[in-house]
Design goal:
With about 120 residues, the chain is an alpha/beta fold. It has one domain (about 1-105): 3-Layer(aba) Sandwich (Oxidized Rhodanese, domain 1). Helix content is about 35%, strand content about 15%. It has 4 helices and 4 strands; from the N terminus they run αβαβαβαβ. The chain has helices at about 1-20, 45-50, 65-70, 85-95, and strands at about 40, 60, 75-80, 100-105. The protein has a 4-stranded parallel sheet, with helices on one face. Strand 1, helix 2 and strand 2 (about 60) form a beta-alpha-beta unit. It is elongated. This is Rhodanese domain-containing protein.
Length: about 120
């Protein structure tokens, strides 16, 4: 019985970390990204971000954040992601590394050509 309860707690913890959004990080309008003086970190996969690049953004996919977070300057960041799961995981990883995330932008696959 104790093992079952412990298993549910562990599984619940991982589901929470992946799917529950970070409180206090607002979504930013896509048009405001060019007006922003903040650093933009594009955490979309290389194959996706190549098709719709964001000028001036640092492209570090979620799976590479732990290895390459030192390439990002320690200032306020805007995160660009392709879906909510990627956004949640990326913001949590960057926050754990000491970055302050001030907002995020979601680009889904149907909007990819819109930003060019």
């Amino acid at each position: 019985m104790t093992i079952a309860i412990l298993s549910f707690i562990i599984i619940g913890y991982f589901i929470f970390r992946r799917n529950i959004p970070i409180i206090g990080v607002p979504q930013i309008n896509k048009k405001d990204i060019e007006l922003s003086m903040l650093n933009v970190v594009d955490i979309r996969d290389y194959n996706v971000s190549y098709k719709s690049p964001i000028q001036g953004a640092i492209n570090i996919p979620v799976s590479y954040i732990n290895r390459h977070y030192t390439d990002i300057s320690k200032s306020d960041l805007i995160v660009v992601a392709s879906n909510r799961l990627e956004k949640n995981v990326g913001i949590r990883l960057l926050s754990q590394k000491g970055f302050k995330i001030v907002g995020y932008i979601l680009f889904d696959e149907y909007e990819m050509g819109e930003h060019r």
